[in-house]
Backbone:
């Protein structure tokens, strides 16, 4: 069975939108961004009861934002993140926990954009170390979400094999974010069947379904870039991807509808979200998964975790310089020129072949979140 689910957090517009679906018993699973509670001293009792109700049925999944899985340096923020996750997971046992692939820009731990790292042996060592720690803290299956963003077409294809390698030591899972996939298909003019041959569909335990926005860009293949902004309704193309890909994922268990609460401020938007959810639920009924309804008792690997956490000074310096260039350049041209003179030039980052429309997109994202 595949559970139609919602991403639900302490946002009044989002909660007002989801409440009628909960009251009618239509929501079969819930995804909660557990690390967003840093904004609150404590959770309201009623929200804790909601989480507990889904956790008892094995229908609560955790989704993190701020761990920065591929960050080459280790910080106190990451340690605190894992300590908090360990505590939260004891109170609200998760079916599984996932994080975003990549590393965060920004000096403030809670203000940054996830960027793609170089797909190298150094990044693989760092990422595997962080994934083991995530699994140890969550005490349940863990995995990663595919990024919408890539600098060049080669990295779109390689990202999925790299994700497979990252989670392999913990027999991890993959969230296949279908809107992120839609962004990749559009922004690099790719063929779906060709790309699917590179994706480890047998690891997909969860899918994300969401909307986004368009941004004009003269150097993009179609004259515009698709952005994963979560602020619009789900496009028909993403529902098509769910119908096409869902049945090919034998371990699929949850399909989660996401939308920012700030985009659900009026009744029309809220009705649109509920309509999208009902479309998701209808498609889920047609997908047959081989995952048992409750497989949380599956033994977890007990591989020892090395201490102290792995770090890589060279990769960390490169990540810091990239973040600084993207966040502080006053224009795309300045960012482009600085990259050509940076530590990343003539390296495994391959900045010389980065697509201009994607570099400019990264620059805009980083400046927004700095």
Residues:
């Amino acid at each position: 069975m595949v559970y139609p689910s919602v991403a639900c957090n302490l946002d009044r517009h989002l909660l007002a939108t989801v409440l009628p679906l909960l009251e009618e018993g239509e929501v079969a699973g819930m995804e909660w961004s557990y690390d967003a509670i840093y904004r609150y001293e404590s959770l309201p009792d009623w929200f804790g009861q909601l989480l507990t109700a889904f956790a008892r049925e094995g229908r609560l999944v955790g989704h993190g934002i701020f761990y920065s899985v591929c960050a080459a340096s280790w910080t106190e923020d990451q340690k605190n993140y894992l300590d908090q996750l360990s505590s939260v997971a004891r109170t609200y046992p998760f079916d599984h926990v996932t994080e975003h692939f990549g590393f965060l820009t920004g000096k403030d731990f809670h203000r940054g954009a996830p960027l793609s790292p170089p797909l190298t042996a150094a990044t693989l060592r760092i990422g595997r170390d962080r994934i083991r720690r995530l699994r140890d803290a969550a005490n349940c299956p863990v995995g990663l979400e595919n990024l919408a963003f890539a600098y060049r077409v080669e990295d779109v294809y390689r990202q999925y094999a790299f994700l497979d390698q990252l989670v392999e030591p913990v027999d991890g899972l993959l969230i296949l974010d279908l809107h992120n996939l839609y962004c990749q298909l559009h922004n690099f003019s790719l063929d779906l069947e060709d790309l699917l041959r590179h994706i480890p569909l047998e690891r997909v335990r969860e899918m994300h379904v969401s909307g986004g926005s368009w941004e004009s860009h003269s150097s993009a293949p179609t004259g515009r870039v698709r952005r994963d902004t979560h602020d619009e309704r789900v496009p028909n193309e993403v529902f098509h991807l769910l119908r096409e890909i869902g049945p090919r994922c034998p371990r699929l268990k949850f399909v989660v509808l996401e939308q920012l609460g700030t985009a659900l401020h009026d009744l029309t938007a809220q009705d649109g979200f509920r309509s999208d959810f009902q479309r998701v639920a209808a498609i889920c009924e047609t997908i047959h998964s081989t995952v048992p309804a409750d497989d949380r008792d599956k033994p977890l690997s007990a591989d020892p975790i090395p201490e102290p956490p792995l770090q890589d000074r060279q990769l960390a310096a490169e990540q810091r310089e990239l973040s600084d260039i993207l966040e502080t350049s006053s224009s795309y041209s300045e960012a482009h020129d600085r990259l050509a003179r940076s530590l990343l030039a003539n390296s495994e980052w391959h900045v010389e072949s980065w697509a201009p429309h994607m570099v400019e997109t990264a620059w805009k994202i980083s400046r927004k979140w700095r």
Remarks:
- The longest strand covers residues 204-209.
- The CA atoms of residues 70 and 123 lie 6 Å apart.
- Residues 121-138 form the longest helix (18 residues).
- DSSP finds twelve helices and twelve strands in the chain.
